[in-house]
Amino acid sequence: MHRLSIALVVHDLHNHGGHSIYSKILADELSRRHDVAVFANHCERPPDAGWKYHHVRAWRSSALSTVHTFPLGLRSQSARLDRYQIRHTQGYCGNDPNVVTAHICVAAYLDSLQGASPRHRLSLKLMAAADSRFYGRFEGQVIAISRKIAGELQEFYGVQGPITVIPHGVNTARFKSRNRERHRVTTRRQLGIKEGEILALYAGDLTKAHTYLKALSAAAPNVRLAIVTSSRAYHWSSPNVQILPVTRELERYYAAADAFVFPTTYDAFGMVVLEAMAAGLPVFSSDRAGAAELIQSGKDGFVIALADWVDATVAGLRDPDLLRTIGAEAEMTASRYDWPTVVREVEQVYFKTAATPDSQ
């Protein structure tokens, strides 16, 4: 194994948010055996980090402004970037990468949206256009975080070359079911959940799930529903629903819950699905989440078409023995998707890239 020089390019690098966590884990792990630098606009770099950081200028007034100005800032770093054998970007970031990880297909997400404002749709259309131009001419290695994304890149952007699918990983030590012993009783008490009550948990953007969560809360009034979200819209009042702010201690809520519900209308992956599985929870997912590909429906979770999701989930939540059995299987499945495995698979893509003369 030879030592590589690796540049990781991402808008932001920190410990929360899918593509950012992914980039930080790659930087931390790969810097133990390779020369690694991170090019980002915002970066939370620990003092003892083994990788370098280079600031990239960008105008951050909106997601659209970031997408369009970050490449301009990256252009000023071109000479420095060109020194690296591996130039790995997270989606479209500009410059001349030879590896890209697709964390979303914006065009497919736009296609899935219902009821979005004209302004939001216009923003997504412009971002999708930038993505389409990038992938249309990109000739390097493409990594997709799910088979769903791989298929969407081919369908919406016409990607012709090979795509390596490497699902996200999970910190099994952080989310293991043993956390129940530490957090379950106190967290349920704080939420006012009585012994014997079933608690279903949702974490994520309400834009993509609120319709089905509302229907679930109405169809199963005896089930308590906790929703952890940063969404300011789509809130509603119901005796069996609590809407909670985002927390960096989500493992406490996994420990308190009896099931995880995820009726998303679109998710490229959905890291919370894998976290919930690692916590020993049965997941009731729609079939529109990339992470649902890791579930054997009926064995270690449930993957359900949205049209049937409410009825099927209500039926499943009525059976505590089934929830425990499926949850135990889910934890075993999640143990096969740890972050070190992801890093090793990405590293193999790097070695393949470095061995290809035209990629330099």
Summarize the structure.
By secondary structure, this protein is an alpha/beta fold. The protein has helices at residues 18-30, 63-75, 78-81, 106-112, 118-137, 147-157, 172-175, 179-191, 210-219, 251-256, 271-278, 306-317, 320-334, 339-354; strands at 5-9, 12-13, 35-40, 42-43, 52-55, 86-90, 99-102, 141-144, 163-165, 199-203, 224-228, 241-244, 259-262, 283-286, 302-304. The chain has two domains: 5-169 and 339-359, Rossmann fold (3-Layer(aba) Sandwich); 172-334, 3-Layer(aba) Sandwich (Rossmann fold).
Anisotropy-based shape: globular
CATH architecture label of the largest domain? 3-Layer(aba) Sandwich
Q: Using DSSP, what is the number of strands?
A: 15
Order of helices and strands: EEHEEEHHEEHHEHEHHEHEEHEHEEHHH
Q: Might you state the CATH topology name of the largest domain?
A: Rossmann fold
Q: What's the average pLDDT?
A: 95
CATH class of the largest domain: Alpha Beta
- Tell me about the biggest sheet? 7 strands, parallel
Side-by-side strand order of the widest sheet:
5-3-1-6-7-8-9
Structural class comes to alpha/beta
**Termini distance?**
18 Å
Global Rg: 21 Å
The name of the CATH superfamily of the largest domain reads: Glycogen Phosphorylase B
Provide a count of the helices.
Answer: 14
